[in-house]
Amino acid sequence: MQIDTEKCTGCGFCVRDCPVEAVRLVKKKAVINEQRCTGCGVCLRVCEALAVTAEEMPPEGTLQCDACPIKCRIHSGYMGACHRYRNEDGQLVRITALHCFEDVAAIVGPDPAEAIRKPVVTAIGAGTTYPDCKPAPHILKENRQGVDVVTVVTEVPLSYSSVIVKVDTDIPLGKEGDRILAGKREVGMVETEQYGSKMLHIGGVNRMTGKNGFAVARTVTDIANRRPVKLKIENGGRLLLQVGHPPVIDGKQAVKMRVGCGSATMGLFAPILVEAADEVIILDSHITGQMSRHVAGQFAGARPTGVQLKFKESTPGRYFGDHGDGWGGTSISQPADVIRAVDMTVARAAMTILITETTGQNGAMFEVRQDGKLAQRALTKKARAALNAISNSCEPSRVSAIYTAGAGGSARAGVTRYPIKLTRAVHAGKAYLTVGGAPGFVLPGGGITFMVDVERVKDGSFYWTPTPATICPLEYTMEVKDYEKMGGHVEAMKPFDAKKPVAK
Ligand code: SF4
Ligand code: SF4
Question: 378: which of 189, 221, 231, 301 lies 20 to 30 Å off by Cα?
């Protein structure tokens, strides 16, 4: 990397962000330590004064790492930008040794004993006791393979509760932080994106106890019970969502989940794409891929084409996309518009360019004319085959949801006289938490905050009450000896009778 000291303003962004501390300020000018520098390009991206430029050729004496698209050029004795690889006397070495499970077993911690992994009964239909300090409605024990096991069940009202909804689609729904409305009432917000999915958060205690609390509780419960709900994202789409079904966005049913980002699609299909056209561009709002510059395309034999894209290049052949209603969730609705220019000193006349998106649903093909202009042409058989290969690898678009709540409050009093002992037992794997029989994932740290996949809970098992709170069927299963030790309501404990499971 080179820094033009005339342009450098000494802002220090490159110093702060350089992952290997290769930049420092000397008399308010950035200076690069060439030995440490890996050419990762972070300083290039953060420098607002455009003072940094990259060398085309790897500096002498460096090794080029090919473990990720950054392609660090590492000097002997130094490490790459991710701090994983080091050039040790001309050999690239992974700094940390490969770990066996035994090496990490103590950190991973034990699984709960087999005897307590299933509840004696579920809390579905259990009812609730109020006030909380009364014993839970059912405290039932049985002997399993010589171990006395007890399950304490309650349909517990939880105002600290929400659903995290995963909508598998690349169609834009709204921006992070946008409010989600049920009718005119705010019930949640757009949270983030996952690979091929949009994540929505509906509910949460402050919305639940706010002015729209009833609508919030009802919406969380409907989603958890896998009923259809109509939502509107402020400044975004109108949604009809039902867990287990494809989402309907602005009246149109989404069909395919993308196979990956544009770069991942290139990584997956480069050997097929290289047969389909001289250049392939995969439009994607996250990372748009360009075959001739992408490491996977080059590995598969793609040659330089001189095609230059409008988007900002992140690493070779990987471009940050934008968001819109066009192909691949970008703003590009006329595919050729993604091409800024074709450098005819590199391009070949009659060279073909295939443009598609990460679901392979749309495809367009162009030929480069002598004057550098593009002429659209019909898709070739090989281009169709490439689009089909992408499309057939996509999973169907669907909605799923995780119910998440905090049960570390007064509901513990129905289980034990010493609530902290229940919390500790849950975190120690001595008391196992299930929701309608489905395993709950307990979040680390304090309290009993858990998550459960609603599709593993019998539909219709969640309710809401105008407290307002959602009501969740919750079970704690543990060995009777541990229940006694935590000060459990052993006087209310009864043997489980499969013929009369709810007898009091
Ligand atoms: S290219 Fe990367 S490693 Fe080199 S100075 Fe810039 S930020 Fe640091
Ligand atoms: S894997 Fe690490 S060392 Fe290798 S190119 Fe990527 S960032 Fe650099």
Answer: 301
Which residue would you say has higher pLDDT here, 323 or 189?
189
Pocket of ligand 1 contains residue 20 by CB under 6 Å: yes
Nearest to 139 by CA among 408, 422, 501: 501
Please name the amino acid found at residue 324. G
72 lines ligand 1 (CB under 6 A): no
Distance 18 CA to ligand 1 centre (A): 5
- Where residue 501 falls among pLDDT bands split at 50, 70, 90? low
Q: How far apart are CA 224 and CA 41, in angstroms?
A: 45
Ligand 1 neighbour 37 (Cβ under 6 A): yes
Listed by start position, the domains of the chain span 2-94, 114-160+402-495, 262-392
* CATH, domain range 2-94: 3.30.70.20
Q: How far apart are the first and last CA of the chain?
A: 76
Instruction: Report the residue among 11, 42, 72, 83 best suited for mutation to probe ligand 1: largest number of ligand atoms under 8 A from its CB.
Output: 42
Token reading at 145:
């393979």
Torsion of CA 127, 130, 134, 136, to 10 degrees: 20
State both tokens at 414. Answer: 């129905």
Ligand 1 contacts CB of residue 38 (under 6 A): yes
Look at ligand 1, atom 1, and give the residue with the nearest C-alpha. Answer: 39
Q: What is the largest CA-CA distance in the chain?
A: 90
Name residue, tokens 């849950």: 426
Determine whether the shortest distance from the Cβ of 415 to ligand 1 is under 6 A.
no
Alpha-carbon span 149 to 479, nearest angstrom: 4
Distance between CA atoms of 130 and 126, rounded to whole angstroms?
13
What is the Cα–Cα distance from 136 to 490, expressed in whole angstroms? 11
Instruction: Identify the DSSP state of 440.
Output: P
Q: Identify residue 120 by its one-letter amino acid code.
A: V
Rounded to an integer, what distance in angstroms lies between the CA atom of residue 189 and that of residue 288? 27
Q: Is 370 helix (H, G, I), strand (E, B) or coil?
A: coil
Ligand nearest to the CA of residue 20, numbered in listed order: 1
Residue-wise pLDDT tens digits, 49-105 = 999 998 878 899 999 999 988 889 999 999 999 999 999 999 999 999 999 999 999
Query: What is the number of alpha carbons within 13 Å of residue 58 lying toward its C-beta?
Result: 13
Ligand 1 contact via 399 beta carbon (within 6 Å)? no
Residue 462: name the closest of 124, 118, 119 by CA.
Answer: 124
- Between 289 and 410, the more confident residue is 289
Residue 68 Cα: closest atom of ligand 2: 6
**Residue 230 exposed, middle or buried by CB count within 10 Å (0-12, 13-18, 19+):** middle
Q: Which ligand has its closest atom nearest to the C-alpha of 94?
A: 2
Q: Which of 37, 47, 75 to mutate to test the pocket of ligand 1 (most atoms within 8 A of CB)?
A: 37
Residue 32 φ then ψ, to 5°? -100, 135
What's the token pair of residue 464? Answer: 């809401």
Question: What 3-state DSSP class applies to 216?
Answer: helix
Q: What is the mean pLDDT of the chain?
A: 94
